[in-house]
Amino acid sequence: MSAQHIIMNFSLPPNLEDFQVIAHDVIETLPHELSIGLDDLVIEVEDFPDEAVEDELDLDDPYEALALFRSGKEITPGVEKKSGKDDDLLILYRRPILDLWCETCDDLSSIVRQVVIEELARNMGFSDDDVEELVSRHHQGML
Question: Looking at residues 99-120, what average pLDDT do you find?
C-alpha cells in the first residue's frame, strides 16, 4: 500500500475544508483492523462540540473533545436501531485539534491521524494498550 501525502502550508489556521481533506487522507490510510466496516463512514468537521455533546460527554471545557464517533446503528447513545442503513459518523473538532497542534508543534496530519485512530479504536472496543500500539505502528508507517 502506498501512502499519499498531502503537503499543506498554512499562513492562516486550516479551515473546516482543509480539515476535511486531511481527515479523508487519514481514512484512506487507516490500519486494516480499523478500516473493516467503515466503507460508509461520514466525516464532519466542526469548530467545537455543541452544548448537547458537551453535556453528554460531561465536558468542563469544549477544548477537551477532539473527536466523536457515532454509530449509524444508534438512535441516541446506547440505544440501537432495529433496522436502518444510517452511516457511521466521525466528527472532528477543529479548534481543540488546532490547540493541540499549537501546544505540541507536531505535524498537523499526524495529530489528526492519531485522533482518528484513537477515537475509532476505542469505539471498536480496542484496549488502551492496543490503541497505543496502533497509533505507534501507524505513525511509524506513515513517516
Answer: 91
